[in-house]
Fold each of these.
Amino acid sequence: MAEEIRISRDFIEKELPSAPPLYVSVYLMTLACGGSSAVIAEKLGALESDVLRAWAYWKDRGFLQKTAAEPAAKPKTGSIAELATKKPLPASSRPDYAPAELAEYMKHQEVRRLFESASKKLGKFLSQQDMSLLFSFHDWLALPIDVIDLLISYCVSNGHHGMRYIEKVALGWAEEGIDTAEKAAEYIELRKTGFRVVLRAFGQGNRMPVAAEESYIKKWLKEYGLPLELVQTACERTVLQTGKPSFPYADSILRQWRDAGVKTSADIAALDEAFAAKKAGNAQKSSEQKPAGEAPRKKPAPRQNKFINYTQSEWDFAEIERLGREE
């Protein structure tokens, strides 16, 4: 963080009176510590998208050229069906809506119901900024109204009522293509059940997975198409065989099961039996390959020396050989 910030008198007299207070705070915080929009938002307790819009504002004014985002694009009014098919705007361009624009959109029953539902779930009256943010998820990120409603329910059920957190989840859903109620329900179930089951099987059920671990779990359940109970079994076997949680080791087990067409616990049992039978057969075959009538080899008699009167278990054999050579 900079120890000292220099601001010209001209900037103070001409820019500060007309700039929104939050934008001024963003400008000063950016000069002071820099960092990403998420860092600035965290320090100011603001929405990350508001930080991006502030940077766009200062870019237009000739400041913060290296960090400012492109200015926000205003949406066109239209039917709710037309808005639902819009291409998502870049993450740095979340629109802001004037009260008159929101009033126009609220003529659509779906939008009005979304705001009413959000108000009840969040336990507060929505401000103009709150409604602007929520509607942007539909207009900007192209998330359907019912998906946004599920998103709010999901956040609230996890104890998160803040709009900054809700915005981050919305951005994540948009990036992952969660654009139907079915995909949203699958995502929620995976987070609430799948992740916790896997980590509990690894003996780490008191946390959520990091990004790399989350990728493994999604691959097992979606790409491999394996039931959660089989994933759990593979994770438990990993700990038993290695003594520690290992996502790559569990992945090797699950990949083999997928290639073998395993779908149930019975399939695993059959695979285990086949492996045990093959192992036993190989051992029997190795025993039968010895020439007929060949007497078993006898171990050579121990070398006679002055140490022979001691039991072998009391000596290091390498040391005995060394002493023998010194005679």
Amino acid sequence: MDSDQGFRCNPAALGPLDDDLTPVTGPVKVFEGEDKYLSARKLDARAKLCEEVAPVLGKILDQEETVLHVLPVLHYPRFLDFFGFGMWWTLFFRATVILTDRRVIEVLMRDAKHVGTRIFSYSWGQVSVLKCSMATLKVKPAKGRTQKWKIIERGDRKLLKVLMPKIQQLLPGDIHAPRPVPLWHCPECGAASPEHPKQCTQCDTPFKTRGLAAALALAFPGAGLFYAGHPILATLDFFGEMLMYMLVAILFLVASGPTDMVAAVIVGLLILFFTKLESAHMASVLVHRTKAERKDKKWRRVAIVGAVVSLVFLALPPILSGSLGNKLDRDLDLSANGLGWSGGHDANQWQFGVEPNQRSEWIRDDGQAVFVWSWTMGTDETYESLAAAFNTDDQEIPTESISVAGLDGFRVHQSDFDDEGDTYVWVRWVLFDRQFDDVHVVGAAVDPGGIESFEAELNELLQNVVWIPAE
């Protein structure tokens, strides 16, 4: 076989394919009788394919070995190899199958026209089952996993229908000393090698490893796929992961409380886990094609530097959490009142416990307490919805508009009973800090007969309010 000029196949080497033995008088591109199976256009493409795989076969075939047929196929991957590629798996598992009188060889393709570097073979002496049906070629070895290929061309299916019975006669039947197959071949010298070789045992060619591919994918977006030799995929992976990163970063930056932070952490961890799992898996699958490694130390440095950069970027959103969100900007401080009220913002000093969103507690000399709650307005929250929130049990509670200390709002009176069955009234003044889009609620439990005097004192108290930065 002349590896520089391609070669011809001889599917009739094991015996005539049919009873029509009419001699061939025209030119032969791939094999005699080819025009019965393939059109002229497909024969031209097949001749180019033979020329492409000829250098590979020149390193692998024995001197007396005869090539029966060469055909383009789709390699059916195992389920875990298939994971992550989705509907585009056919772009990465195109292959060429070479049938000889001694074995079946698969050469995985880089694209539709160019050979890749993953080569393996099944010797007929180790094959227990060989079938061709439903556009699928199936090889089951005595020891090892079954491999299937989808036959793309209809003419190849027609040819294999008559060729398979002749090849099946080469199978040994009972195999008394099964050996694991397939055999993997070094793309540099053609020698057989282990399935996951670090280097060729014959020519010492080092190969890229799945471990480093996965490490690079985890260290930096797209690095594992660049290492595997797929720059377009790597670029798409980089921008895809950066988009996910930006979405999670926004969740952290706009977080306005513990609940938002927990949600951002959960979403971020889920996205990080699944995107990194997919990237690492795809990189390890694509690099598992005996690709020669020329710059091992360089890629290890890339993994280290990429990991450091990624950790820095991952740490930024939590550190800056809430910096873009609507945070509470300032608190009401009633300490400088001169009216006999004392208290503060330290929850450890409060006498009546702590409630959600409570910011301060103030107590008068006679024991009357005033509480302040504050929060930021939510994106779906309106002043009308706040007024409606004070209505319970489908009972409308009257609200009255007020303006105090430069803030607009409304006041609410709501009756209730204490533990001893006595009636009291919750007096709440809901004040809107429109400048910062915040809400402050000042409330107290008051005896029904003292509401008017209490509100007069509360109004005077709020006239002396001081704003302090919220912590």
Amino acid sequence: MDLSALLAVGQTALELGLICSLTVLALFLSYSMLNVCDLSTDGCFTLGAAVGAMVAVSGHPLLSIPAAMLAGVCSGFITALLQTKMGIDSLLAGIIVNTGLYSVNIAVMSGSSLVNLNKTDTVFTMAKDLLAGTPLESQYRTVVAALAVALTVAVLTLFLNTRLGLAIRATGNNPDMVRSSSINPVFTTIVGLCVANAFTGLSGCLMAQAQKSAEINIGSGMVTIALASLLIGTTLMGRGSIFTRAVGMVLGAFRLVYAAALRMNMPAFMLKLVSSIIVALAIALPYLKQQWPMIRRRLFYRSAFAGKGGN
């Protein structure tokens, strides 16, 4: 692989990582801060892509971003409502919403499973025109994604340090203490999931417009990949301020191996296997690191015993 190919792999990984890091930041809020495992992420990601694509097709590319985020808020609100008002377990609530969103997403895309954006103005084509004649002209996708991530990290950091944000963090740590402090954990859960799913909807919207298409399976496996990125980011910068941890989430989203697989013309059906391997390694790495001294001792004793038996 020559230098130009390596640079192309790096740019692809950067673009994918920045866009997907918005979903990782969403799970950082719901899973790490609120202690709720939201399995509706796949459907919400597709919902953001579908709504963003349809609004862009109608001739309003800038409005596609708040529209997709608002759709994510609605998804998060339904998920939170099932948990807090109907007594459904958070995992089951996410599965129920994710299943229902499949039909909703098809309906949003006017009964089609694919929306083509090749001849449609998007936020990326607008950025390309805006950056024409500048050194960043060929990096317009990276610029848009980086700007979205920077704003999201700033908003999330400021939000989690407000009084409401501190209440959300406290709800995830100790809901009983929150109740005794006259804070309504139902309200904080609803707000937290709405904000988190707004980020997921934004991520789906940008992904669809970057790929110039929105299809019904665009969010397939996104929750698994995002959780793996969350674990990687926690390992990289698991301690420190909210800003430091949020930056760690962004860094954890850079899937260099996945981008390399794309550049090596690997068959499309193999990409899910590559993602699964990355996820398995990311989840197993902390455990293997903890168990490595014991494994090393076992290997040492086994080799020593084999040596004595040979003599």
Amino acid sequence: MSAALYPRMSTARLVAAYAGDIRLEFIKMLRTPAFAVPTLLFPAMFYLLFGVLLARNNAAAGTMTFAHMGVFGTMAPGLFGFGVSLAFEREQGLLRFKQALPMPPGSYLLARMMMAMLFVAIIAALLVTLAWTVAGAPITMAQAAKVFAIEVLGVLPFCALGLCIGSFVSGQAAPAIVNLIYLPMAFLSGLWVPLQFLPKAVQDLAPLLPSHHLAQLALAALDLPSKGSTASHVAALAGVTVVFFVLAMRRLGNRGFRLFDAAVAAGGRPRVAGAVSGIAIAIGIALMAMGVFGNRSSAVAAAGGSKADADAATDAPRPAAPAGVAAPAAPLIASFDSGTSAAVYGTGWSETSDRHVGGASTAALRVLDGALEIHGTIRPGFQWPFAGAIFFPEGPPMEGLMDYSSRKTLVLRARGDGGKYAVSFFSTADRNAIPSSFPFEAGATWRDVRVPLADFVVDPSRVRAIMVASHGPDGDFRLQIDDVRIE
């Protein structure tokens, strides 16, 4: 806003003009039930379903779902509020009409941005209320405040992305394009299924997505295991915001729309174009790269303490807990040649299932022809059903820690019914943390399963347990394992 353009408008009137535009934009969205109702209620409904009903007796899973659904609720107001609405208003000529009105420069963008932030604030407040009242989640006031601030500010990258979509696509195509981005982005970021349960290719792709970085910040604020440092995540989100905002401004400016600055250069193009915008895009890409490479650090678990050291996660990623007992020199864990499920060290292999945490799945073990046979049934009733066999390398179960930091690979032979299984490692300071998992398939013939510890184990120096299990689909399963060793 310059005095030359609005010489008679006082500061108070400018503030009132901005506030009025924000208020009208918010009321317009509230009066659009097709947008307001699902945007405000879906995150709460999904949290009640996955974080309360299906995660009963599992506080860690419920709290993680709280963080993930908060991020899921943050994405929609920015993507749909900017992307779809802008596309329709641009196509129908309303955007050009608004430019003819005596509105302060940037008022349209500011109103949209504040609308998105208000919607996110309502969603975050609703989730916190449900967490404290219905779920009884162990979330402190300080943690809730951190998550609230992260989500309200975290809508900005999605506003920029929605703005860019709305500036390029037509009004008819915008809803489909936004949904094609919104839903896959949520899944690939681990909001619906934890990343450790997804293929490695998906895990490698996740750091490219802003929703992943926002989710890691929310998990860290709740003292749950997270990857990367706060600085790297903030850099990635800032980079996404800058890149997509500048791209949108250049696109709109080339079509004669001036949403950010009413002052126009002599050539008739907004000042955001040209070399300045190119430099801004380069800076944004550099910030995004910082976020992607910063995310390579190991996961951080800060159970029972604060995340004050999270910024240093790249240099000191391991939790502040004593290292485990040094692993025996021999690589063999169990060969089952003795006819029992005993191991060379540790507590041996025993059955495990989600029945121990309120589920209904079952598992049973027996040694057959010198191999451990695991058979059982996966039943619904738990958010992440599982049934299989578990090995505790150092007793007592889930309390003792084994140091495998000098080893590189866990190897076992497996055959089964053709189903999908996973080798999971419990390896953080928090015994209730979600394990990291390596998926594999077991067919009718024996095959070697090799698990690279560097890629799939959070902290090899503090391994509590190793589990081989089925996670679905529902129904009976049968798996045999043999010659388990860690090299």
